[in-house]
Amino acid sequence: HTELGDYLVVDDTGAFDKCSYGEEEVACESGPPGKMLCRRVNVYPNYQGDIVMQERQRDERPEEESSFFNILSCCVRNSRAQRVFSKVKTFRDFVLSWSLLWQCIAEFIGTMLIVIIGCGSVGAAVLTRAQTGIWQVAIIWFLGVSLSIYATATISGAHLNPAVSFAFALFRRKEFPLHKLLFYSIAQYLGAMLGASLLLGLFNTQINDVLELNDTSRGSGSETSIMTASIFCEYFPNPGFASIIRVSVFQALSIEAFGTGILMFMILSLTDNRSKAVRNKDFAPLFIGATVAVLISIFAPFTQAGWNPARDFGPRLVACFAGWWGDAIPAPHNGFWIYIVGPYLGAFVGAFFYDTTISLGLQATT
């Protein structure tokens, strides 16, 4: 009786187009070098396994007659002294071979962590006055971004931002093929939505208390409704500074594009293996997180400093369906689109600027 994980034995008495599975014969086909394909519909219809050679009482034959690793099939050529064993791939082996799936899972989890930590700090500031102040919130974002990168970089490269993935797909196609862009982006948006949903569940009671205390409700367009929605969505100007500054649509779009451009420029600079400024790339996530914190400290009073379409639009959708409706989408000034278009535009410009300046300089001097 044979099961998943058992070994298939290829007969060694000559060249065959059949291999044995237990007492049954199973059709085999040509495979890539070092591989064999055997069909067994009821067990595993697309089996592919590594070939392992086991020596037995070897007779004296020319080496070329018993060297069957170079042929592209599971047939054995004139090798009476050897057997070929190949392990049947299990379903677990099959799933583990889907590298893109695991990369998307890493992007999903990493983006979710960013939202939980970053938006969570905003929620704590709005609802309890904890970490009150732009710099205090920026420090939490710094830690959230850095930790999320460390958690996922080995698997997916830790883009954790659709705008960053967009720039990599355009300017780093060898590292990030274009066909991955859609899958990464979907994972990032969904991760952000889950992170926001978890925060909503955790903060829901306090949000309702604040709204009730101020005699208003979600989606009413009131100052308190906008303030509580800002836990998830971003606004221009920042609701905490709305009484002292005005920000136009064009200015908000420019700030979001400019900030994301700087972030993209720094990501490419810090991860470029030709650069010796950061010799140990293990520190790159910390510097990327620090870049986010600095940009938040400067620009958050004006636009809340998004830099990430998934971080804004995912939670914004959650807020919309959680009762904030028009306060979330289309939002005051119909400005929700700025936090999508601005980062994509900025990431493109930032990557282009890096490749036409610093990257060319490194190429000329290294």
Number of discrete domains: 2
Q: Numbering strands along the chain, what is their spatial order in the largest sheet?
A: 1-6-5-4-3-2
Broad structural category: alpha+beta
Low-confidence parts lasting 5 or more residues at pLDDT below 50? Answer: 1-17, 32-36, 38-86
Please indicate the percent range of residues in DSSP E strands (runs of 2 or more). Answer: 5-15%
What integer is the average pLDDT?
A: 83
Pattern of helices and strands: EEEEEHEHHHHHHHHHHH
- Alpha-carbon distance between the termini? 61 Å
Transmembrane segments: 100-127, 133-160, 181-203, 249-271, 283-302, 336-354
Keywords: Membrane, Transmembrane, Transmembrane helix, Transport
Protein name: Aquaporin
GO molecular function: glycerol channel activity
List its traits.
single chain; 366 residues; alpha+beta; globular; membrane; MIP; transmembrane; Aquaporin-like; transport
